[in-house]
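Run log // design_07
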């Protein structure tokens, strides 16, 4: 199946969904990635502060950072091609890219695999005290950031 790689800017944890003030866009994106991964898509997520080697090893990301600087992050690579940069994509975009990748590989009808678009109840969290309510997360305590 398709492979989606996300190159995040430097964050305190692997998803950025932690600490006292969580960006709702990160919570939504984490939920969307979790959902698409459950559909069989391979997802790899790299955080600049935790995995700088992944950024250095990717010619696409190295060139993007050379051309655009840190403003290029987050960046998303699908099947070895740059799909988006400077923003987190929507669930619809992730689905579209996964389906296109499968079509490019001449794999049969895959629409059924993505038919259920119900939102996830919770996103992957890097902190045990992060709680998801719909697409909004709340954190109690200090979280992983301090």
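design_07 sequence
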């Amino acid at each position: 199946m398709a492979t989606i790689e996300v190159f995040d800017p430097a964050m305190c944890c692997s998803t950025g969904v932690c600490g006292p003030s969580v960006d709702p866009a990160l919570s939504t994106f984490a939920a969307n990635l979790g959902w698409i991964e459950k559909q069989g898509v391979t997802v790899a997520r790299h955080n600049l502060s935790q995995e700088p080697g992944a950024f250095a090893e990717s010619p696409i990301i190295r060139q993007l950072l050379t051309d655009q600087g840190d403003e290029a992050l987050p960046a998303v690579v699908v099947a070895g091609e740059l799909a988006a940069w400077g923003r987190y994509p929507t669930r619809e975009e992730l689905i579209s890219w996964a389906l296109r990748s499968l079509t490019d590989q001449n794999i049969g009808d895959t629409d059924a695999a993505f038919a259920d678009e119900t939102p996830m109840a919770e996103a992957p969290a890097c902190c045990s005290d992060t709680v998801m309510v719909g697409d909004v997360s709340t954190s109690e305590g200090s979280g992983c950031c301090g």
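The first helix runs from residue 24 to 38.
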